[in-house]
Amino acid sequence: MTLPQSQPAMIDLDQVSLSLPSRAGSVDILNSISLRIKPGETVAMLGPSGAGKTTAMMVMGGLEAITSGRIKVAGHDLMALDEDRLAEIRRDHIGIIFQAFRLIPSMTALENVAVPLELTGAADAFDQARQALDDVGLGHRLDHMPDQLSGGEQQRVAIARAIVTNPDILLADEPTGNLDQATGAEIMDLLLATAERHNTCLVLITHDEGLATRCQRIIRIADGQIAADSGALSS
Predict the structure, then answer these.
(1) DSSP string, 146-214
(2) I need a labelling partner for 62 at 20 to 30 A (CA). Which of 13, 20, 29, 194 fits?
(3) Closest CA to 228 of 65, 43, 39
């Protein structure tokens, strides 16, 4: 996919490799991955467990350092940044949704969603958090603790927390993996509607072919490499 000069990629990986040491020697997790993802594009990264797709997402979010290559996110060269600056990039540009929800158990739904806004010093953090929860259909669960919510409701809180800062990029790691089929379909509907509403770049990590086909583009990962890249948007 070639992007016009006026539209730089939101995510740009160039020959990205990641190797980790082991007793048996170096293990290649990612092997010379190159891809470019447009602003507002919805992309599924599909592959079996251990293929490297979650690691690729962690790299895109600046949560995992690469061994070689180059990665730019929202115009920033992540290899050139220290941990404090990487945290700022995530705060300002990236929303991350984990399969395990990762809500703070001692905080209400409203407090969980307000956390990233409070970190930015937003004076109206709780007003914005309340609106985000209303947007995901949880306006009636503001004061509930995570253990008082169903799995689907907890995932909706996690989505609200990820989108409340209006990020340029949403990274979702198996967001329906812990949910039943019907609830998972609702969560996927919500993610796609959110991406469209805010022109957010959505990268969905999944092993579910059905979910993947709902995205505009499917990138298949196998053995740490891109095995196929279909449905890329034209320039």
Answers:
(1) GGGS-HHHHHHHHHHHHHTT--SEEEEESTTTTS-HHHHHHHHHHHHHHHHHHT-EEEEEES-HHHHTT
(2) 194
(3) 43
pLDDT tens profile 173-223: 998 888 888 888 888 998 999 899 889 999 999 988 999 999 999 999 999
Contact residues for 117 (Cβ-Cβ < 8 A; gap 6+):
124, 125, 128, 129, 164, 165
Topology annotation, domain 11-230: Rossmann fold (3.40.50)
Q: What is the pLDDT of residues 35-57, one digit of tens each?
A: 999 999 999 999 988 899 999 99
- Listed in order, strand segments (DSSP E) in 21-93 are 27-37, 42-46, 68-73, 76-77
Contact between residue 200 and residue 213 where contact means Cβ atoms under 8 Å apart:
no
Tell me how far the alpha carbon of residue 65 is from its chain's centroid.
Answer: 17
Cβ partners under 8 Å of residue 120, min gap 6:
91, 165
H or E element at residue 108: none
